[in-house]
């Protein structure tokens, strides 16, 4: 979708692709959302979260509306790139990059989910590696952050394996119940030793111009 550059961006690794979350790809992924394959035990998401909606059709509708709203918000302090994770031609989850005061500090955070049918194969780490490459190599970021509930072993293990350092803890709620969150921080300097040469970025220049990056990074 060349008329809206974020939807034309792709990140490819030997195992998977992150493709801009077009409506066509979201429609293909909707069956997994409807079937509850986004869920995990323990609960992974903080409140509010459309994926916790109990009615399957309403869950899909709320999920789509949240993405559509997010696409439309492109401000210096807050923007979000939505990607569908594609493995062997099939959408299996999502991986997002969220600019947080990026134009001032060069900072971003990430969010992801993977269909229950595809967990336990190392895809979570591969997805995160791909989105970090986009943030640091493609957009010139200075720092990435991540957070996960303390009992979300998979997310916390991925952060540790990719070089993030612990950055304190905080409280949040999931479905109204308080729970402790681990916060993680990855600087560009700490990412460099983990930089990969087998991750490719595609159709990025128009997106870089579109986003409110710092003057040193914008292609204008």
Q: What does this entry look like structurally?
A:
The structure is a single chain. This protein has one domain (5-210): 3-Layer(aba) Sandwich (Aminopeptidase), CATH 3.40.630.30. The protein has 7 helices and 10 strands. It has helices at residues 23-34, 56-72, 102-105, 123-138, 153-161, 188-191, 205-210, and strands at residues 10-12, 17-20, 74-75, 78-87, 90-100, 107-114, 143-149, 165-174, 177-187, 200-202. Strand 6, helix 4 (123-138) and strand 7 (143-149) form a beta-alpha-beta unit. The longest helix has 17 residues, at 56-72. The protein is globular and about 40 Å long. The protein starts with 9 loop residues before the first strand and ends in a 10-residue tail after the last helix.
The biggest sheet, with number of strands, parallel, antiparallel or mixed sense and barrel status, is: 10 strands, mixed
| Category from helices, strands and their pairing | alpha+beta
Please tally the β strands and state the result: 10
Domain count: the total is 1
Inertia-based shape:
globular
What is the straight-line distance between the termini?
Answer: 21 Å
Strand content: 25-35%
Along the chain, the helix and strand elements come as EEHHEEEHEHEHEEHEH
Computed CA radius of gyration, to the nearest angstrom: 16 Å
């Amino acid at each position: 979708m060349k008329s809206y550059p974020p939807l034309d961006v792709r990140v490819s690794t030997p195992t998977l692709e992150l493709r801009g979350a077009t409506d066509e790809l979201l429609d293909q992924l909707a069956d997994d959302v409807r079937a509850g394959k986004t869920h995990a035990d323990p609960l992974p998401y903080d409140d509010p979260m459309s994926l916790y909606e109990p009615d399957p059709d309403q869950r899909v509708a709320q999920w789509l509306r949240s993405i559509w709203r997010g696409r439309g918000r492109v401000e210096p302090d807050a923007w979000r790139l939505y990607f569908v994770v594609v493995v062997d031609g099939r959408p299996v989850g999502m991986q997002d990059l969220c600019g947080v005061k990026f134009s001032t500090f060069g900072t971003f955070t990430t969010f992801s989910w993977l269909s229950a049918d595809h967990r336990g194969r190392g895809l979570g780490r591969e997805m995160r590696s791909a989105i970090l490459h986009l943030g640091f190599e493609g957009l010139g970021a200075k720092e990435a952050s991540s957070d996960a509930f303390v009992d979300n072993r998979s997310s916390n293990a991925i952060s540790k394996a990719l070089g993030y350092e612990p950055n304190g803890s905080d409280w949040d709620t999931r479905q109204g119940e308080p729970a402790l969150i681990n916060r993680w921080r990855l600087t560009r300097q700490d990412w460099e030793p983990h930089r990969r040469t087998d991750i490719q970025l595609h159709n990025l220049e128009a997106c870089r111009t579109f986003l409110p990056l710092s003057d040193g990074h914008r292609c204008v």
